[in-house]
C-alpha cells in the first residue's frame, strides 16, 4: 500500500464534479488524499464533496467552484485550498472544452480561441500558481488529462486535438524545468470514455461500434479506468516517472 499511499496529501482536481475528474477525485480520496472538487457550478461540486466526505470522513473534501477561463477564479481556487488545507501536493488539470466539431476551415476565431484558452492556457495559469510551493518543498505531482486526439490528426475535432497535443508538450517542458526540484509533471491520454463530454460519440450504437471495433478491447472505457492511472502518476509508485504521456485507450492507437 505504501506505493500508492496518499495519506495527508492535498489534491486539487479541475472539472471534478462529473466524469473522469470525479472518478479521479474519488480514487485519490480512497488512497488517503484530501481533495478539492472544482468546476464551474457550485451545486454539483458541493454534491461530490459531500459524497466523499460521507464516505471517508470530515475534512477529506471541499468544494471550490471556479471557471477555468478566469485567472481570478483559478487564483481563488489556489488561495482557498491553501487556506483550508495549508498546501497543495497534487494538481490534476482535467477540465477542458470543445465547442466545435468539423473541418479546421470552418471554425470561428472565438471557438478556436476558447479551445486554446480552456485546454492549454488555463492549465498553464493554474500550474504556475501552484508550482512555487511545490518547488520550495521539492515535492509535488502535476497531472494533465490530455487525449489520444493529441497523437494523430482528425477531420472532425482537429482544433481540440491541437490543444491536446499542446498539453503533452507543456508537460514535457515543465518536467525538464522542474525535475531538479523533484516536481513531476505527467499526462494521461484517454481514448473514448463514457462521459457526457464525449456523449455524441457513444450514444449512437452504430457510431459507438465503429469507433470501438478497431480497438483490441473492443469497448468504450469508463471514467474509473482512467482514475487508476491517475492514482499511479500522483503517488510514490511513479516517483521515477516525469514528462510522460500514458495512453489509456483500450489499445486503439496501437491497432490503427
List keywords for this structure.
single chain; 256 residues; alpha/beta; 7-stranded parallel beta sheet; 47% helix; globular
Short description:
The chain has 256 residues and is an alpha/beta fold. The chain has helices at residues 19-30, 42-56, 71-85, 109-137, 158-178, 199-202, 205-212, 223-234, 252-255, and strands spanning 10-14, 34-38, 61-63, 90-93, 140-145, 183-190, 245-248. The protein starts with 9 loop residues before the first strand and ends with a helix.
The arrangement of helices and strands along the chain is EHEHEHEHEHEHHHEH
Q: Helical proportion?
A: 40-55%
Number of strand elements: 7
Largest sheet: 7 strands, parallel
Radius of gyration: 17 Å
Report the average pLDDT across residues.
Answer: 95
Q: How widely separated are the two ends? A: 37 Å
Strand content: 5-15%
Report the principal-axis shape: globular
The DSSP helix count reads 9
What does this structure look like?
There is one protein chain. This protein is 47% helix and 14% strand. It has a seven-stranded parallel beta sheet with strand order 3-2-1-4-5-6-7, sandwiched between helices. Strand 1, helix 1 and strand 2 form a beta-alpha-beta unit. Helix 3 packs parallel to helix 4. The longest helix is centred in the middle third of the chain and has 29 residues.
Task: Lay out the secondary structure.
Elements: E1 10-14, H1 19-30, E2 34-38, H2 42-56, E3 61-63, H3 71-85, E4 90-93, H4 109-137, E5 140-145, H5 158-178, E6 183-190, H6 199-202, H7 205-212, H8 223-234, E7 245-248, H9 252-255
Parallel strand pairs: 1-2, 1-4, 2-3, 4-5, 5-6, 6-7
Helix pairs in contact: 1-8, 3-4, 4-5
Amino acid at each position: 500500500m505504501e506505493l500508492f499511499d496518499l495519506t495527508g496529501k492535498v489534491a486539487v482536481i479541475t472539472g471534478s464534479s462529473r466524469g473522469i475528474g470525479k472518478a479521479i477525485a474519488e480514487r485519490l480520496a480512497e488512497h488517503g488524499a484530501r481533495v478539492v472538487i472544482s468546476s464551474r457550478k457550485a451545486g454539483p461540486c458541493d454534491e461530490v464533496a459531500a459524497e466523499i466526505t460521507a464516505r471517508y470522513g470530515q475534512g477529506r473534501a471541499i468544494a471550490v467552484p471556479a471557471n477555468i477561463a478566469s485567472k481570478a477564479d483559478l487564483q481563488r481556487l489556489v488561495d482557498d485550498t491553501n487556506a483550508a488545507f495549508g498546501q497543495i501536493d497534487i494538481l490534476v488539470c482535467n477540465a477542458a472544452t470543445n465547442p466545435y466539431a468539423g473541418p479546421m476551415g470552418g471554425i470561428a476565431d472565438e471557438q478556436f480561441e476558447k479551445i486554446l484558452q480552456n485546454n492549454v492556457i488555463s492549465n498553464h495559469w493554474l500550474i504556475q500558481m501552484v508550482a512555487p510551493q511545490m518547488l520550495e518543498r521539492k515535492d509535488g505531482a502535476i497531472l494533465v488529462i490530455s487525449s489520444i486526439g493529441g497523437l494523430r490528426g482528425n477531420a472532425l475535432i482537429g482544433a481540440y486535438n491541437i490543444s491536446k497535443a499542446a498539453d503533452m508538450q507543456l508537460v514535457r517542458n515543465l518536467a525538464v524545468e522542474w525535475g531538479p526540484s523533484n516536481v513531476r509533471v505527467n499526462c494521461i491520454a484517454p481514448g473514448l470514455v463514457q462521459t457526457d463530454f464525449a456523449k455524441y460519440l457513444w450514444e449512437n450504437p452504430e457510431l459507438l461500434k465503429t469507433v470501438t471495433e478497431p480497438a483490441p478491447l473492443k469497448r468504450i472505457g469508463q471514467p474509473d479506468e482512467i482514475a487508476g492511472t491517475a492514482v499511479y502518476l500522483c503517488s510514490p509508485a511513479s516517483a521515477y516517472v516525469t514528462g510522460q504521456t500514458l495512453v489509456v485507450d483500450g489499445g486503439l492507437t496501437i491497432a490503427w
